[in-house]
Amino acid sequence: MRIDLHTHSTASDGTDPPDALMRDAAAAGLDVVALTDHDTTAGWQAAVAALPPGLTLVRGAELSGRWYGSEPSIGLHLLAYLFDPGYDPLVAELANVRRSRDIRAENIVALLNADDIDITLPEVRAYAAGGTMGRPHIARALIGRGLVGSVDEAFAPEWLGRRYRLPKADIDVLTAVRLVEEAGGVSVLAHPRAGSRGHIVPDSLIVDLAVAGLWGLEADHVDHVPEDREHVRLLARDLGLRATGSSDYHGDNKTVRLGACTTDPLVYEDMIATATGIAPVRG
Ligand code: AMP
Ligand code: ZN
Ligand code: FE
Ligand code: FE
Predict the structure, then answer these.
(1) Does residue 164 form part of some domain?
(2) What does the DSSP 8-state code read for residue 19?
(3) 152 Cβ inside 6 Å of ligand 1
(4) Which tens digits make up the pLDDT trace of 11-49?
(5) Domain range spanning residue 210?
(6) Total structural domains within the chain
(7) Phi/psi at 59 (nearest 5 deg)?
(8) 102, 133 in Cβ contact below 8 A?
(9) d(CA 280, CA 262)
(10) Residue 227's domain is classified under what CATH number?
């Protein structure tokens, strides 16, 4: 069984539409794939409708979380799986983050324009195509204008990585863990050691998240070196959490391929036995 629990479609900052993503997942030899777009469930329906025979879809999302208990606060990504998408308090939080992402994009474009870098909001919106707005869409607009050569280059400190980086209104992470649990889902801390993306999560915070109801840690991820993976695995074991592995596929917005890292089938069985919100869908 090959299980990939973290992918993005055009519903956020991936470049494959959900239906094409499902076909690609089957072609890549996956048995189970999770669709985890940033702060949205908008891609679920199209993914379910396009499920090839034999492929199982785990419906999920990657929530933009933040720990406000330290100065400066710490941004982190929380994968949420098999939660009830109609649970109002969670729906409201997701809508709030998406709204904040729209405003942030507008403000980043204004900052760029103030420095005579001429990209427009309609251009950026066209790259987002109605999906959750993210910095990769601004990166695409910069590439489109020939200002940078790649998405990676657009995330350099002189561009979106620092100079033109603005905060968005992330969900308080303890609230996020609680809401996912209330919605019958399970939560997994995404790429806790992915430092190059500004998301190193201190172990002490992971301990607090475990107490709050976190279910697992993403250990195997392309942004983790072998020492990180081992560290996260041991931490998960010590805290009674599960360790997952996944690609974090983004289509052409990243170089990683579907199934680049995978999750142990026993961990997956544990996940579907724990979640009470919704069930995986088999094509
Ligand atoms: P945002 O959520 O809008 O702040 O943008 C973060 C997204 O950009 C994440 O989904 C990352 O996958 C992507 N990202 C972050 N850093 C990089 C990078 N250095 N190169 C390419 N993509 C990146
Ligand atoms: Zn992304
Ligand atoms: Fe992430
Ligand atoms: Fe992701």
Answers:
(1) no
(2) H
(3) yes
(4) 999 999 999 999 999 999 999 999 999 999 999 999 999
(5) 3-95+170-282
(6) 1
(7) -80, 130
(8) yes
(9) 17
(10) 3.20.20.140
